[in-house]
Amino acid sequence: MAVMNVDVSVDAMAEALLADGYLIVEGLAPGLTARALAELRADIDAAPLGHTDFLGPRTKRLGGLLRRSPAVQELVIHPAVMALADRVLQPHCARYQLNFSGVMHLLPGAGAQELHRDGDIYPIRHPAPPTLMPVMWALTDFTAANGGTLVVPGSHLWEERRAPLPGEVLSAEMPAGSALVYLSGTIHGGGANVSDVDRTGLALQYSLGWLRQEENQYLANPPEVARHYPERLQRLIGYDYGGPYLGFVNGDTPQRLLQPEHDGPRNRTSPEVDALAARMQRHRWGNVEPVPTPPESQRDGVHVNTGPIGQHDTR
Hints:
The chain is of the alpha+beta class. The chain has a single domain, classed as Jelly Rolls (Sandwich), CATH 2.60.120.620. The chain contains 8 helices and 10 strands. The chain has helices at 10-20, 30-46, 70-76, 79-88, 217-220, 223-226, 231-237, 271-279, and strands at 3-5, 22-26, 59-63, 96-106, 132-138, 150-151, 170-171, 179-182, 188-189, 199-208. The strands form 2 sheets. It has a 7-stranded mixed β-sheet. The chain has a 3-stranded antiparallel β-sheet with strand order 7-6-9, with no helix packed on it. α1 (10-20) links the parallel β1 (3-5) and β2 (22-26). α1 (10-20) crosses α4 and α2 (30-46) crosses α3.
């Protein structure tokens, strides 16, 4: 398996992640994960069991974690994770965002989850550039016996309909405090807990800033709650531009909702976001054939602005 320790460079981690579709970083934040488990314990105990086979009748799930646990807030913006997201997601967006926060608590007797790709929530055919970078933090030890997450290395590059053979599915075994990082196209699923101990994982997913978030962060963390978070976290959950002219409110940055009254000019983008957008890769969507450009002799000299619509608002 692709297992690294915290001393490995982020560039090497990102290279392995993009090549194999997953990466385990052992011992990344054991103190924070221990705190998170303690802060979430009462809510986990009170959480309901899943009501479908996919959610798991022996699995407890819990969402909206930021307002429940200060330690989770710190894990969301962990420097190593942010550095990986910079390398994996940033080439395809001006801003990436927190997509989902959740606990997956497998009780003894929990069955294996159906293998799937998290990226299938979007209508994008595989293989494709990553739309998500999920991180599964081990709040307890993950073993093959207690339901450690199953991953299929290299499956992020497979054709869409290819199914893994039994020998291609591996169990992500790792001690508490470690993190499994994978990609939107990586086939994976929760393992079966055939042990006599619980297995608790904390899932934090990051997505391209121009996509709809799986978990509605604005309702989970409304302004009166989010204004108490660190600014980096506020921006990551969506109180920021998702790109030039994307996500403004009242013609200005969403940060205004969390700051004191401001009487300066309103801006629908920022120089930083504009610069990041100028560097991002642009991808073709669908099979629409472009209309050929007419020869120079047939043009009338009319200039067409192809920049964001906010730069030339229609009247």
